[in-house]
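Trying the structure run again after the queue cleared.
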Amino acid sequence: MITLKTLDRQYVNGSVRKSHGREIQVVTSAITGEQIAEGVLGDATDANEAVEAAKRALPAWSATTLDQRRAYLQKLADSFDAHREDMIAGLVEEFGTTTATAGYIVSQSRDWFVFAQKLLTEETFTERIGRATVRKVPVGVAVLITPWNGAGWFIAMKASVALAAGCTVVVKPSERGFWQAQAVLDAFADAGLPDGVVNVVFGKGDPVGNVLTTHPDVAKVSITGSTATGKIIAHNGVDTMKRVTLELGGKSPTVILDDADVSRAVPFAVQAGLFNNGQACIAGTRILVPASRAEEFRQALAEAVGALKVGDPRDPDTVVGPVLDRDQYDRVQHYIRTGIEQGGEVLAGGLGHPDGLEGGNYVRPTLLTATNDRTIAQEEIFGPVIAVITYADEDEAVAIANDSPYGLHAYVATGDTGRGVALARRLQAGRVMVNEIVDAPDAPFGGFKQSGLGREFDRFGLAAYLETQAVFS
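Done. Tokens:
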């Protein structure tokens, strides 16, 4: 009989302690589909005590000098680095991302704390305008709600700038990322920050999320998650006028223009669509191809997707690993089935597990034809499923790309970079990448329309945790 590991830890007021809540969350392996642990979820008591600890710590933390904050941010970077291997292992086992991708996620998680140190300059916080001294002051206690598709990356990205701004924080990782967030909790606990500056509480939206997002002592909430959840959080914060940053869903288009080189455009589009096994809010899951070259691009895309190695994410040759859990697998199968039932042609992949991978949550990377009014072209799937849509001319391509409730990200493939940049200006998306996928942690990140409110990353993210005060003298 296998003894399951029990994950019964919260990090509150500088100490790792048992959860006050008793509800059990089943934790499974994406690789095998089997249960690997049981998590004990926090409750309203855990959430309230975390906020109280952050409130008590706020005056002293917000009064730290910039040099002191830089030193603490470096301690966090070092602690994340010390827990690197555990973080990678957790991502691969629970989330199913490949070891290479997990390594990238963990490296950048550490680097967020290094990047944040560079923002700590006097000019960031004080400016003279006429007779006024304009000061940027921390907004207060910040609640950070993060998703399961790379827990450490999102936690570090948000916490680094919140702490740099002088806020204290309460982190609520997704309960579906229980396993991978354990090493993140340990990294915070080992970093040596003052008690209460960082708190980590595991729990569901009800009750923990609701307590945190309605609490009168919380001034700021930042979430990365679904649009539906983001709307609930925005409503929860209205009574106390909480500041909110909402990074929500996406249904990003990849527009392949008629002058694009197939050998460059297709790998670009496939990478954009299937990064992190398609479990990414920025995934380019609508590929728009010109009618004049539709057959050429469809065939090349089908060959590229069909050739991807699906398998154990610990295998260095694997490109696409499993999805998170059985619920996610069933969700993806539902969308593939719906795409077929609505008239889509399967160009690659299809229903069911890949041959030889019937165990675990493996999905066949799937390419389906569609029109933009179809379900698979309008709803976020969060798995390795791409819709191919044909357009007549550039104006129609723009119209199709913008015909979505979302506007988080977009991609353009073209033989003329200038033309691609001109097209990008017409797209309703917070970020547009032309011909290459760029790692840009210093540029603003966030969405148009129902993809959210506000911007994250670098000084744009820092600003979200600051209030502006003008003093006249």
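Residues 253-439 form a domain with the Aldehyde Dehydrogenase; Chain A, domain 2 fold (CATH 3.40.309.10). Worth checking whether this holds up in the mutant runs.
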